[in-house]
Amino acid sequence: MPKEVLLVEDSPGDVRLTQEAFRDANSSIHLHVASDGVEAMAFLRHEAAHVRAPRPDLILLDLNLPKMDGREVLARIKRDDSLKTIPTVILTTSEAEVDIVKSYQLQANCYLSKPAQLDAFESLVKSINDFWLTKVKLPQQRQSG
Amino acid sequence: MTAVFSDINVRKDAEKHLAQMEGRYRGLLEAAPDAMVVVNQGGEIVLLNLQAEKQFGYQRDELVGQKVKNIIPEGFAERLIADGTRTAAEALAQQIGTGIELNGRRKDGSDFPIEIMLSPLESAEGILVTAAIRDISVRKEAEKHLAQMEGRYRGLLEAAPDAMVVVNQVGEIVLLNVQAEKQFGYRRDELVGQKVKNIIPEGFAERLIADALRSAEDALAQQIGTGIELNGRRKNGSDFPIEIMLSPLESAEGILVTAAIRDITTRKKAEAHLLQKVEELNRSNEELGQFAYIASHDLQEPLRMVASYTQLLSKRYKGKLDSDADEFIAFAVDGASRMQRLIHDLLAYSRAGTSGKDLLDTSSEEALQEALINLRGAIAESGALVTHDPLPAVLADEMQLIQLFQNLVGNAIKYQSPGVPRVHISAARNGARKWIFSVQDNGLGIDSQYFEKIFGVFQRLHKREEFAGTGIGLAICKKIVERHGGSISVESQPGQGSTFRFVLAGSERKS
């Protein structure tokens, strides 16, 4: 069964780069994209156009997003009993200590910063795939929202 | 006969009586401290005492029967004549007890100032006038001197560029100059005798009272020459900033206080202006620091896209297009990578100036050890021998001190000629509180014309193919040392190695 990944990212360049990196790492995963926080929540709650959206196995969340920023999205996910068990990985350019602390306080499952070089980025995506989508055991029973 | 005898007896008695009276009167006359001259209504001298002889330089018999005009040329005889039109008793009575200032003339013709007091004296020859004459040369001289002094003092007072106000110990204005009139907008007579509080509402009168508890001299001496900033109040009620300087002034009325009052409105404005400029400068410096940080941070985002996609292009299409395409893509990849390093270093440079910690007692030896750990890869790779003397405790931001050693030792290893790189770090005292650190290498050396240039941002002496790097390392070193209040310099000759020296303040603890 293919893995479902939700990428919450507003920069098309980053979206494409992530898609390319995942294609190299694991061509079988389904990468869904939400370009802002509001759309991410709609996807997760199967609202509007996302009625048939699958429940993701992993969320990759940028912090700086239009409409509703990543911190708010993270807070809502972790407050929601049906969503809080989904591993949520922060993937952002920020290296600020305040962002790192805040993210972990909001129960982020881990915090990653985007490397500047392509090689490093590809290797990071590979690590994500190897760990979160391969090695990690997730609950089997999916609660319905 | 009897009658004749008795007549004679009566006369004899009278003469005897007269002689007695005259003897007493003469005794009184001679005992008087002043020159005494008795004059009749015709202005002739009838009698005089020894003092009168002395004062005027005549023998007694040279004066008796002479006109008083000879010794008092003006003012006395006329008075007698003028008085002649009234009753003499009336006229004289008027003058009793009031001293008249005239001039006396000695036998040698010289004049001198006198004060005479007149009193009437009834006698058988009619009403005589007794004149007590006092030589007032000394007093006149003293008065003249005093007037001169006062004139000079007033001259000084008026010539002073500041407003001058003289105040007594109870805070009343005794004297002031024209500048004071102008500054406070009062006429002189509106201020003299008034409380100084009217023109300096706070801080001055209180000071006089407080000073009264100490000895006045002590208190004032303390304040001499120290300007006190207070507010002055004009007649129209408006206040203005003043600076006053106090000095004590001894006078017959006790110690007075002379206050030199300067209107410092302009200076205050200039000070405020200067302060504002300093604030603006600080703000703009801060903004500049922020700007460098934000700019370099935000520039990284799009640059990451450029770098990533040119690298992706290179990875996917190298060898699949023509050789030109491969070359163009390679330049784009290289340019983007270099720009990333530049921005990264610019960010580090900006941080060196804006995000430093407080300067604390720091072991420079431990900081060096830390730097050497960070450089262990480069040291191992080059086979460099890095040695150091015992190093002192200094006042520093430890992270920045590590960075400083790391950049300097790193450079020493990097810019090497063939052979084993040797680097030695030492420190020597420079005065009581400073240390000069030296980082000495046996590397390529630097031509003296570049000694200044190498500390600039992005200044490089070598081609990129020879040595990698953006040329920010020494600029960061300079910024760190300057933030610590020190300086950095280099001494070198091409082929002879280089010695970088920097100065830091020693630890305040005894070491």
What is the helix content of chain B? 40-55%
- Going by helix content, strand content and strand pairing, the class of chain B is alpha+beta
Strand content of chain A is 15-25%
Count of runs of 4 or more consecutive helical residues of chain A: 5
Biggest β-sheet description of chain A: 5 strands, parallel
Strand order of the largest sheet of chain B: 2-1-5-4-3
Specify the overall morphology of chain A.
globular
Please give the order of strands in the largest beta sheet of chain A. 2-1-3-4-5
User: Largest interface, and how many residues on either side?
Assistant: A-B, 12 and 13 residues
Proportion in β-strands of chain B: 15-25%
Average pLDDT level of chain B: 82
Write down how many β-strands of chain A occur, each being a DSSP E stretch of 2 or more residues: 5
Q: Total number of β-strand segments of chain B?
A: 17
Estimated radius of gyration of chain A: 14 Å
Report the span from N to C terminus of chain B: 135 Å
* Mean pLDDT over the residues of chain A: 90
Describe the main β-sheet of chain B briefly: 5 strands, antiparallel
Q: Are there runs of chain A of 5+ residues with pLDDT below 50, and where?
A: none
How large is the radius of gyration of chain B? 51 Å
